[in-house]
Amino acid sequence: MNVRRLIPTAALSCAALLGLTALTACGSGSAAADRKGGRLDVVASFYPLQFLTEQIGGDHVSVTGLTKPGVEPHDLEISAKQTAKLNDADAVVYLKGLQPAVDAAVKQADVKTKVDASTLTSMEKHGNEVGGHAAEHDHTAGEEDHADHGHSHSESGDDPHIWLDPVKYAEVAKGVGAALAKADPAHAADYRKNTDALVTKLGGLDKEYAAALKNTKAKVFITTHAAFGYLAERYGLTEEAINGLDPDSEPSPARIKDLQKMAKADGVTTVFYETLVSDKTAKTLASDASLKTDVLDPLEGITDKSKGTDYFSVMRSNLTALTTALGTK
Length: 329
Prior knowledge:
Shape: globular
Distance between the termini: 58 Å
Number of helices: 11
């Protein structure tokens, strides 16, 4: 294990410094520390966790993302090179349940600090419809009851898309900040300071969303896959997904017919698709139901097609798209 600390005291034994028994392991860690300029070497599974770790770690961390821009995170396969990188890291930040290949690799990896974001906030089970008067939730602000529309609640499962809710993302940030401070106590004060700054910015984003979505004409929006359930619940909306939590699944003809009826009944104007998944089904549904299409980005990676350059700018682009589609009273 390589827990790289900058302690410029050659007299300390390598084993005592790192709490290891194998001097050979410590020797490789020292070499790696030299390569990284003494920074904590962190592997993040995909963009939202990479961004968060970089914001909190600042100059004290070197962050490597496992999911390259433009790759759909759910589909990621881990290469031998990435496995080696993971084994050589000081810490890994990942989200169990989102990327099976990453879960398997992390389980096998010899990494001292493993931070599972799913343990840092509450996770919920979501199906194709999220929000509204779904039985398992208490959110009642401004929703309409959709019981008469025959909405599908199939394909429910633990929803990993916690980063699209700024409040939950802030909870994850606090947990990651605490983990970095524990792994690298010499810079704990900076990690705490950076965490507080990020949490404050996320609080501001939450307020922007709450204010903009409070008095919309419509409360229902349609997406290609069920990525925006936590966001919908947070702000009194209902997400209706063409597919379930799996972006590659195919909807049934009955589901498409159901959505067409629902769109008319609930005043839906827009079908949202995303940049990393085919827009074919969304555009077909929109055409058949005479609806518009627009992008609602689940922020699983930043590419040239993204409407923004980082988490905050894309989230604000999403807010503009939502308010445009839902209208204001």
